[in-house]
Specification:
The chain is built from 4 helices and 21 strands. The chain is α+β, with helices and mostly antiparallel strands and about 300 residues long. The protein has a 5-stranded mixed β-sheet, with helices on one face. Strands 6, 8, 10, 11 and 12 form a 5-stranded antiparallel β-sheet that branches. The longest helix is centred in the first third of the chain and has 29 residues.
Length: about 300
């Protein structure tokens, strides 16, 4: 009888285990697939605000997060997988739904929206954006301004600049933007967004964030007039050792004359600089070897 009782206990235990596994399996099947990833720049329009110190959902996988524990906080996960330290980049995908993850504000701070370093081409338009906490925007004495470099006077709308009103972008954040029109070399440098608010004589929300704008100018190509009948035949070649006694000094970054052929330079573009041509055809890297032949005249080329 005792033996039968033990058998019954074992069977009951197995049944309970089987039932538990079936329930767990059913729960997992009903639970949408969940993934946390990092995406800088534009992201989903939907949003979710989380406590940065709360643990991420245990059933969510982390894209490119092989060495990340499942018991890490949202902030720890962000810090592990973001390619730019200090930037929030998390996106939560549940089934077919995607949401940009924002951290609940831990104070009355103003923050950059995006990376610190901004690159722009000359004559393009650029928008810089800072994030202001909604609780701060509700204060009657809030003042937000943009400054360029170390100038004491804040920037104002007009001419090159446009500063729109605060724009809601999430349920708890407002965007404070600066639009710079027709960027030139004179616009490169550090831009700072400031917020201040006075309360009983003391500034309770004074804070700032900075961007550095870098402006790229395309290299100017040297204009070469078309070859005329009276223009002498021109050839650029490489000659190490003794060369012509006559010489000519050129800017190494200027374009070679378009009407000049390049000896043994079948794969060389006509729109290359003197230095690029030298580097292509010299048999000894780092040595200058160019010779310019026009008609019956030859000159050794030296770089300025």
């Amino acid at each position: 009888m005792e033996k039968d009782f033990r058998v019954c206990l074992v069977k009951a235990s197995l049944l309970w285990s089987l039932a538990f596994l079936m329930l767990k399996g059913a729960s997992s099947a009903d639970e949408p697939k969940c993934e946390i990833s990092c995406r800088l720049g534009d992201g989903p329009k939907d949003e979710e605000t989380v406590d940065p110190d709360s643990i991420t959902p245990s059933h969510c996988s982390i894209k490119n997060g092989r060495n990340i524990s499942r018991n890490m906080t949202w902030k720890e996960v962000n810090d592990k997988i973001t390619p730019k330290p200090g930037e929030q980049c998390l996106v939560l995908k549940t089934g077919n739904s995607e949401k940009r993850i924002y951290f609940a504000s831990l104070g009355l701070h103003i923050e950059r929206s995006g990376p610190k370093d901004i690159a722009a081409n000359v004559f393009s338009n650029v928008t810089l954006s800072c994030l202001v906490d909604k609780t701060v925007t509700a204060l009657d004495d809030l003042l937000v301004t943009w400054n360029f470099k170390n100038q004491s006077d804040p920037l104002k709308t007009g001419g090159k600049y446009r500063i729109p009103a605060l724009e809601p972008i999430t349920s708890c954040r407002r965007a404070f933007k600066l639009e710079i029109i027709n960027v030139t070399e004179n616009d490169k440098g550090v831009y700072t967004c400031h917020q201040t608010c006075k309360d009983s004589g003391g500034d309770v929300c004074k804070d700032s964030a900075q961007f550095e704008l870098k402006v790229h100018s395309p290299r100017q190509k040297e204009y070469s007039p078309p070859l005329t009948k009276n223009e002498s035949k021109c050839e650029i070649s490489c000659r190490l050792g003794d060369g012509p006694k006559d010489e000519e000094t050129v800017d190494p970054d200027s374009i070679t004359p378009s009407h000049c052929s390049i000896k043994n330079g079948g794969n060389i573009s006509r729109n290359m600089t003197w230095k690029e041509v030298n580097d292509k055809i010299t048999p000894k890297p780092g040595l200058q070897c160019l010779v310019l032949k026009r008609g019956n005249s030859e000159k050794r080329i030296y770089f300025a």
